[in-house]
């Protein structure tokens, strides 16, 4: 396969390294010192079960649009922060319109796929999530990752309403698995995305507010109850959209994050590095849909407001 990865940060670079190690051609889109390091020194990825160090094809957005055609790629993976999805899609709209290459989102939140579909149509939009992976840039051109690093993906919003890509999904699934990337297909990727939001809303905002890792929060007798409450509110928000989640999903996600490697959440890492946070992208769908259901997500609203206030005042 020839794969384009938009937003080659920690997680995007890990998957890119796995694919390149398996013989696929990957182009990474990044910026700043990380991009310059990859262009001059190559990419280094360290994972407990895998190491990669090699030259890579890397460029910025203007170079992508001038040096490549959309039709050059079999698959485009969006691994960028959800905060830039709308602007990235707007910048690439004309370039994307010249071909029919599908786009797979591996991003946080539940709002990326609609933004992608607004530009390329639902027929080219694939929903996805990176499961049980922690990945961060530790130095320009260097990434450390942990976890099983599974991908779950499917036609968006589900296979019943968008069945055309099933054969392609099976082919890409086989390619990912052969590259040592566990991959499962979902008939209802919208439900899977909301299920992951249960974890993201449960731990990401609170970690950025408290500066604590996942295990520090889930083992604290007070903070773990806040995590549980925010997970329960996420389930309520999903139910308002008729997404089939239950209280058992919240319990399962709490157990998963409690038993997973102790990690800094992506939002905590972004705060440490002074980067924009995905706080609205993660919290607002929960807040808005719980309000619509007549049952406000009080804990999510409070943590959201406290985090935004602390960012404004530099606390």
Automatic annotation (TrEMBL):
Keyword Repressor included in the entry's annotation: no
One family name in Pfam for this protein: ApbA_C
The keyword Oxidoreductase is annotated on this UniProt entry: yes
Protein keywords: NADP, Oxidoreductase, Pantothenate biosynthesis
Ketopantoate reductase N-terminal domain boundaries: 3-157
Matches recorded under SUPFAM superfamilies: 6-phosphogluconate dehydrogenase C-terminal domain-like, NAD(P)-binding Rossmann-fold domains
Domain Ketopantoate reductase C-terminal: 188-307
InterPro entries assigned to the protein according to its UniProt record, in alphabetical order: 6-PGluconate_DH-like_C_sf, 6PGD_dom2, ApbA, KPA_reductase, KPR-Related, KPR_N, NAD(P)-bd_dom_sf
EC number assigned by the record: 1.1.1.169
Gene3D superfamilies cross-referenced by the UniProt entry: N-(1-d-carboxylethyl)-l-norvaline Dehydrogenase, domain 2, NAD(P)-binding Rossmann-like Domain
Associated pathway: Cofactor biosynthesis; (R)-pantothenate biosynthesis; (R)-pantoate from 3-methyl-2-oxobutanoate: step 2/2
Catalytic activity of the protein: (R)-pantoate + NADP(+) = 2-dehydropantoate + NADPH + H(+)
One Gene Ontology term of the molecular function aspect: 2-dehydropantoate 2-reductase activity
Free-text function comment from the UniProt entry: Catalyzes the NADPH-dependent reduction of ketopantoate into pantoic acid.
Similarity field: Belongs to the ketopantoate reductase family.
Protein's UniProt name: 2-dehydropantoate 2-reductase
């Amino acid at each position: 396969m020839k794969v384009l990865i938009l937003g080659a940060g920690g997680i995007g670079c890990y998957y890119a390294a796995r694919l390149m190690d398996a013989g696929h051609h990957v182009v990474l889109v990044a910026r700043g010192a990380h991009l310059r390091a990859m262009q001059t020194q190559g990419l280094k990825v360290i994972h407990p079960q895998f190491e990669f160090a090699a030259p890579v094809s890397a460029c910025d957005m203007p170079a992508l649009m001038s040096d490549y055609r959309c039709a050059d790629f079999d698959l485009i993976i969006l691994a960028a922060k959800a905060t830039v999805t709308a602007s990235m899609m707007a910048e690439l709209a004309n370039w994307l319109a010249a071909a029919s290459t599908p786009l797979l989102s591996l991003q946080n939140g539940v709002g990326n796929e609609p933004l992608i579909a607004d530009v390329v149509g639902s027929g080219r939009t694939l929903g996805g999530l990176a499961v049980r992976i922690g990945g961060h840039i530790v130095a320009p051109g260097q990434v450390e990752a942990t976890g099983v690093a599974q991908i779950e993906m499917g036609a968006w919003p589900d296979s019943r309403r968008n069945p055309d890509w099933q054969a392609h999904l099976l082919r890409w699934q086989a390619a990912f698995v052969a590259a040592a990337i566990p991959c499962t297909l979902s008939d209802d990727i919208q439900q899977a995305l909301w299920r992951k939001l249960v974890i993201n809303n449960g731990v990401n905002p609170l970690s950025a507010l408290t500066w604590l890792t996942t295990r520090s929060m889930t083992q604290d007798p007070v903070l773990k109850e806040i995590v549980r409450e925010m997970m329960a509110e996420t389930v309520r928000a999903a139910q308002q959209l008729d997404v089939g989640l239950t209280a058992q999903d919240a319990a399962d996600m709490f157990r998963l994050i409690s038993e997973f490697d102790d990690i800094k959440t992506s939002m905590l890492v972004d705060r440490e590095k002074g980067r924009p946070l995905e706080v609205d992208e993660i919290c607002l769908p929960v807040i808005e849909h719980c309000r619509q259901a007549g049952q406000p997500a009080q804990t999510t609203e409070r943590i959201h407001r406290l985090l935004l206030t602390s960012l404004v005042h530099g606390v």
